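# step 3/5: fold
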Amino acid sequence: MEAIARITSRTVVLPIEDIDTDQIIPARFLTTTSKQGLGERLFADWRYDADGRQRADFVLNRPQSEGAAILVGGNNFGCGSSREHAPWALVDYGFRAVISTEIADIFRSNSLKNGLIPVIVDAATHQWLVENPGAELTIDLESRSLMLPDGRSVAFPIDGFSRYCLMNGLDELGFLLENASAIREFELRAS
């Protein structure tokens, strides 16, 4: 996993409420245990028509969305089933953060474990983001803040363990391996 301390990027705005994990990555694409290639299937039913051609009216298919690493979603983003493939698809596509007023708990947990920062903001900040697609933002994990183009800083919640892992490019197993000697010493003292 790539270490993330700070992300500066334009936003892509998809202000639909209750975007569930089946919309993020449809179930028919869950036959893989690999993260590679899932970005091509991200929002597949919205991005492509029945013949597999890109829909020009879908936000990810517009030139101004190319290269953006921050997705602004509607309220209750990532609801539905607990599939880990949803954050995999977002990360494989190139997103490093999702911003919403509410992010479903299981999706949020899966995101944190897979290098995607879930940023929860207040309704006024979210409304500004929705009304200003393409705004350049900075997400700073060190200060746990989202910086807007006008200089405002908005705090967002993130637990210390997840923050540490993201900033150091570690998943849970990597964290344990990093602390293997301390674990062995503890086990020796405890026995």
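# step 4/5: annotate
The beta strands are 6-14, 70-73, 97-100, 117-120, 136-140, 145-147, 153-155.
# step 5/5: archive (pending)
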